Amino acid sequence: MRTDFTGSFIAEKDKTAHEPVTLLQLDWPALNGLPALTLRLTDREGVVIGGVPWYPLIEDAGDIRRLVDAARLTVTPSTNVRIGLVNLKTDLFTPSAMLSRLFRTRPPENVVATIRQWFGSANLDETDIADLFVGAGEDPIKSNEVSCSLNLVNISTRHGRTMIGNVINLENYPLAPDGSVGKMMPLVFGVVEDAPSISVRNTAETKLRSVVLPGTNILDVASTEEFSASGTVVINDNEILYTAKNSTQFLNCTGINEFHYADDIVLEKNTDHRYLLSDPAYPIKSITGIKVAGHLVDIGLYTIDLVTGEVVFSSKPVGSNNVDTKFLQAQFTAVGAGNNAVDPLNAAVPAAQTTYAKINPVNNNLSLKHAPALANVGVIGKVFLRVEHFVEGKTPNDHLEAHVTGIGKLGDLSSPATDDQVVTVGSTNIVHSHLDTFGFPISDPQHFHAEAQPPKITQNALSGVGGLTIGLSNGQQHIITFPDPGPGTWASGEYGFGYEWLGTISGPSTVDVNANNNGGSPSGSYRIWRRQGTTETYSTGGNINTDTNSIRITHGATFITFKISSATRVITMTTALDTSTKPTSTTTSKSGALTQHSSNPALSATTDSATRSVVNFFDVTSHVNGDWSWFTGREAQVKVVGALDGRTAFVVHVAWEIEYARRRIEFSDAVTATVEGLVDDDAGSVTGTPDLLIEKPPHLYRWSILKPLALDASVMDSGTIDAAGVLMDAAIAGGYKFGGIIQEKIEARELWQKWGKECRSYFYWELGKAKALYRPLNLATPESPVQKVIADSMIPYDQSSGVSIFETSRTRMDSLVNHIDMQYQRDWSKVDYLSNLKKVETSSVAEFGKREKPDDFKFNWIRITAMADHIAEFYIREHSKPTDIYEFDLFLDNMEVQRGDILWVNAPTHDLDNVKVMVLSAGRVLGSGKARRMDTVKVVGRLIPGTIAGLGFGFQKFGSTGLGGRYLNIGFGQQSFGSTEFGGRYIGAGFGHQVFGSDGFGGVEKN
Amino acid sequence: MIDWKNCKSKDFSVSFIVEEIVPVGTSQVFPVNVYHTKTDEFAFMKTVPINAEFYNDLREKKDWRPILLTILKARVEDDIVERINTVKLDIDDKLSLFSQNKESL
């Protein structure tokens, strides 16, 4: 309630009949060579106060409206009013002139307007004037030849539009990098861990394009554009001096003493890498806990300058000194000792799957040698011998081994897996035709034998023939023999002898020479030659049909000489073949037809196939022991052991796999620190204590008024601000404290809204003064102080409808929140929060379902858990239930009502008695004869439901009207509040046994 | 009928069909007949390929014949083991499938 009214003023306002007068004082400051000007206007003629006349130029003073969003309940209300003024020429000016003429030299936007209350015909003086509103001129501002109107907005609007924050530019930071220019210099309040910094010292930077070897003198880089013609660069921590450069190279380099790799950062060497943590315009308390990329930094690497709000590093901050491991595959270069493999060097070729060395149980040793020395390119991590091979088939008996000279056997190569096989499938398709009955037609297959000629065998004599002279005496004979003609029966024997008488003969005159059979039967002979006298008769041939092979030549002479030059015979055998024709007695017949037979037997086959290649790694790290020279001349062997399987192994590749780790320094500008932020000045004008850390919300409010807004302390209503501070201090142990950073330019009024939300307060302007209100918990208790009881008689009626000017509306359902996951303790390096707190109003969840508004509960400035819990409790009470908002008018005698007051109201819309209502805003309707409007006070308030735990109402009955709803464990006991359900069941926390009377809250409290 | 499930590799004997050894691709293929010793039943014929290069290398050794025989026996034994371990389709399953006759695609 306002307490600044004088006693005379109060007496006047409380009269049932009075003459309210509206005063408007317009103050222009001295400007453009013009002196300050004050105009005093009123809505009545003849108003002179303290000897000072007030000109009756107010046409319509309008309606001072306190704007508030009854649904959100978190917005600090602001006020405005639209004033209508007479714009005719008046003698207010000399010479007389229109009011709007003044605006040419005195901008209405620059005016400070104060609306005041006065009562005519009263015994008041100038000390009794009561201010109603202090504002500034604001559009729309309009005028014509008879009237002029302008908006007056709360003076806080003018102040609140002040932007807070200074930016980095090249004037205050000539060496600032481009990315930092334009950023706001941070303003740190309270204690903020890991507060981010802004680099204000540019360092030229580029990257290596290729590897740099120790001892070389050229650096190939992406660009040297930002670097000086000569100087020093830093790669990792290797400082390198150069004396010349071209666009992509530093030349004549000295000091390259280690390997550097492509993409390594090349930095200009500086000794003052500066990082701004707080705007130096405002002194801060401390900077500690310096981190780079999240890691604490050795204290010797930097210095802290509190005056400038900077941390200064002598060398570029190192984000990480990392272990950047890579694998180097070192190839073998020569054939090693004892090799008998075929094509051994094929196994030294990487990524060549189709070439390989071959070993088998006979030539069983592939030996490869690593001849050259390997360059030291970093710290060796793991080292493996890599062997890739496959076998032409499975090796259930034999195996392969890997060996290295100086170590021996490393292990067995993996044998082909059991399932590493090829299955050949297929089918055969056999079709052939045949007769179902094997028959065919044959005519009588009679056969006959043709009659054969008798066999004739012609033979020459075996002996007894020739040219020799044969002399036979009487009785002597000459034997001629023939070969045996073979078996058979002789039919005849025809002989022919080459007989020649040689002229000597003695004996009878007729002498015969005969050829006779010599054995055999029957006997036969014939005469070869006869000499009868001198007549000689020769027979050339004759038959001797005797089955004999010996012929006797006989004669009848006493002595005779002859010769037998030849002897030939033809033996004719008798014919024994049966030549008669005979039948075969064989018959056949044809039946049936051609048929086909087919079958598809499964194919049974085995396919012998090479196995899949297998890669084995053998760890030799412990043997290498970090020594790059270990590889020089080292030999590796792959051997076939065993000869049972007789398989050939194909070694595709053998190589060293060397993991090496090298130092790569990652530089970082991510410098953070724990900052104890802005401190009070030496006079303690903000906190009351010199150099005290500014962290309490009221102190932040004060700081904003006194420092960036540079307003006089008198614009602050210290009473309300201090009162809010006392409540915040008492709220939790140690009191409310903020910790946060203003990182971007922001209007003061927006900042006040943010701060107000996070400490459940309103920071607002009223009557030209900045005030603070710590918002009470949204629960009423019997002990809750009530500033004023509003009786029905205080509420005017609408002149047209005759209805009380009292309207009730319910808060919007979309404002309901009964589950809060509050995020707080913001990580200011990013949009993230380090802590979370859950608050649930279970009874509301049961009634309305789970309702959340996650975006409304991100609290940047809260860093203390107790405070987060306290604030969350406040908001869950504030939003977990729909509630009533009351908008009503009061007669002017209630003009002391102001924001934050607790009223006791009998709401005519509910037939309720004694509802506790918190005033959200208290405005004013300024009376106007022209508008036929009375002076009234406009109030917007909200119902404060129920009571708090342990302080309930017991078992009494509240009458038919009741009070609000069902608040489990904090309510009124188990009584019923009547049909309106305002009351309901408050279990376990009643008021005790007092009697409230028939209409509820009143009565006598016994406890 | 050879009861493969209850056989061991020792239950078999081999005879080599020398006249049918032929080169195939990069191998020399040695046909080997395998018999079940107890029943004197022909089990199967296995063609054993020996890498030609290896064969040539082997031929240069004095005792190459017994080595080659050992290899061939080992290869056949491997095949015998495979057959012993082959999971055959149960006769009931076969009958079940047989009863389905033809199935349209």
Model description:
The complex is a heterodimer of chains A (1007) and B (105). Chain A is mostly beta strands. Chain A contains nine helices and 62 strands. In chain A, strands 1, 2, 5, 6, 7, 8, 9, 10 and 61 form a nine-stranded antiparallel beta sheet that branches. Chain A has a six-stranded mixed beta sheet with strand order 54-59-60-62-58-55, with no helix packed on it. In chain A, strands 27, 29, 31, 46 and 48 form a five-stranded antiparallel beta sheet that branches. The longest helix of chain A has 15 residues. Chain A starts with 6 loop residues before the first helix and ends in a 64-residue tail after the last strand. In chain A, 38% of the residues are buried. Chain B contains three helices and four strands, in the order E-E-E-E-H-H-H. By secondary structure, chain B is α+β, with helices and mostly antiparallel strands. In chain B, strands 1, 2, 3 and 4 form a four-stranded antiparallel beta sheet that branches. The chains are: A mainly beta (1007), B alpha+beta (105). At the A-B interface, loops of A face strand 4, helix 1 and helix 2 of B.
Quote the average pLDDT of chain B: 85
What is the β-strand count of chain A?
62
End-to-end Cα distance of chain B: 35 Å
Whole-number radius of gyration of chain B? Answer: 18 Å
Query: Whole-Å distance between the termini of chain A?
Result: 28 Å
Tell me which protein chains meet in the greatest interface and how many residues each side has: A-B, 19 and 22 residues
Multimeric state: heterodimer
Percent helix among the residues of chain B? 25-40%
Query: Which spans of chain A of ≥5 residues are poorly predicted at pLDDT below 50?
Result: 947-1007
User: In DSSP terms, counting alpha (H) and pi (I) runs of 4 or more, how many helices of chain A?
Assistant: 9
What general outline of chain B do the C-alpha atoms trace? elongated
User: How many separate helices of chain B?
Assistant: 3
Cα Rg of chain A: 68 Å
Overall pLDDT confidence of chain A: 84
Major beta sheet summary of chain A: 9 strands, antiparallel
Low-confidence stretches of chain B: none
Portion of residues in beta strands of chain A equals 35-45%
The SSE string of chain B, one letter per element, is EEEEHHH
Helix content of chain A: under 10%
- Structural class estimated from helices and strands of chain A: mainly beta
The proportion of residues in beta strands of chain B is 25-35%
